[in-house]
């Protein structure tokens, strides 16, 4: 097992455990479905997506970045910035790409059919942050590999970004109550659970807002920011107006959603 894999797996398990405990102790909303059943299904689809992606695309973004560094491939090698600047630029560019990827998965019909599985969760908590269809994970990996090859970021910056992306996805999907004053400051730097929860509204006018995963600036910059849901966080409805039957909580039916 590579160092990158160990770092990502260790941080993933640690953040998942911390957020799972936090949302149990300080829940933001009452759950409408059983947590154990949902977590089993969401973790199962995440595990399946990870295995399929590694089988179909054995190259990791950090490996491609290291190859680019060794051979001077990528825009950052044309006029090399200072190392710290290269790391900052790399993380920011990769995060902005993930923002636009998310927007694209909402605005293109075929991609939305795949992304619907993520939004079909009837509750939103830390496990929703890793609930993505294997097709979406594979497409996302291809996009990241292409960006890394073109940009030429440091391998360490790519690993840092991957850890941030996984960690922030679980954090901003968590069903955890954060004091309003803390949230107001925190969302200046990170996408908070209250900010991202708006994106999981059954009202598509709200679901087509707040696309950011790590940093909140892209939504403000590109005018897709909505601070609060119209019905409030306790009153808003989570999920889609379709796929609300209990059977869609089973792994096989979740995987079938893009084709229904």
Structure explained in plain terms:
Helices cover 62% and strands 0% of the residues. The protein is globular and about 55 Å long. It is mainly alpha-helical and 260 residues long. It has one domain.
Structure summarized in a few sentences:
The chain is an all-alpha fold and 260 residues long. The protein has helices at 3-25, 35-56, 61-71, 83-107, 109-119, 134-151, 155-173, 180-186, 193-197, 204-207, 217-221, 232-235, 251-256. The protein has one domain.
Write the layout of secondary structure elements.
Elements: H1 3-25, H2 35-56, H3 61-71, H4 83-107, H5 109-119, H6 134-151, H7 155-173, H8 180-186, H9 193-197, H10 204-207, H11 217-221, H12 232-235, H13 251-256
Helix pairs in contact: 1-7, 2-6, 3-6, 3-7, 4-5, 4-6, 4-7
What descriptive keywords fit this protein?
260 residues, mainly alpha, globular, Fatty_acid_hydroxylase, oxidoreductase
Task: Please write the string of helix (H) and strand (E) elements.
Answer: HHHHHHHHHHHHH
* Low-confidence region ranges: none
Oligomer type: single chain
> What is the number of strand segments?
0
> Biggest sheet, open or closed, and with what strands and sense?
none
Number of domains: 1
Rg to the nearest angstrom? 18 Å
End-to-end CA span: 38 Å
Shape: globular
- What structural category characterises the helix and strand content? mainly alpha
How many helices? 13
Approximate helicity band: 55-70%
Strand content: under 5%
Average residue pLDDT: 95
């Amino acid at each position: 097992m590579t160092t990158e894999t160990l770092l990502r797996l260790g941080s993933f398990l640690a953040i998942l455990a911390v957020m799972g405990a936090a949302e149990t102790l300080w829940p933001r909303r009452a759950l409408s479905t059983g947590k154990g059943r949902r977590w089993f299904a969401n973790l199962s689809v995440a595990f399946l997506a990870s295995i399929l992606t590694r089988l179909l695309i054995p190259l990791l973004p950090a490996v491609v970045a290291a190859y680019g560094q060794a051979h001077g491939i990528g825009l950052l090698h044309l006029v090399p910035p200072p190392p710290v600047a290269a790391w900052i630029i790399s993380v920011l560019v990769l995060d902005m790409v993930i923002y636009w990827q998310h927007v694209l998965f909402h605005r293109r019909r075929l991609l939305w059919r795949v992304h619907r599985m993520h939004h079909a969760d009837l509750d939103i908590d830390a496990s929703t942050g890793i609930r993505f269809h294997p097709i979406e994970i594979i497409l996302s990996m291809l996009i990241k590999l292409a960006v890394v090859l073109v940009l030429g970021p440091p391998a360490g910056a790519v690993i840092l970004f991957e850890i941030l992306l996984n960690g922030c996805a679980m954090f901003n999907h968590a069903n955890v109550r954060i004091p309003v004053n803390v949230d107001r400051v925190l969302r200046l730097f990170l996408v908070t659970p209250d900010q991202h929860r708006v994106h999981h509204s059954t009202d598509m006018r709200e679901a087509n807002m707040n696309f950011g995963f790590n940093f909140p600036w892209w939504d403000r910059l590109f005018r897709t920011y909505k601070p609060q849901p119209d019905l409030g966080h306790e009153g808003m409805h989570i999920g889609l107006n379709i796929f609300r039957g209990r059977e869609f909580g089973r792994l096989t039916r979740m995987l079938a959603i893009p084709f229904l």
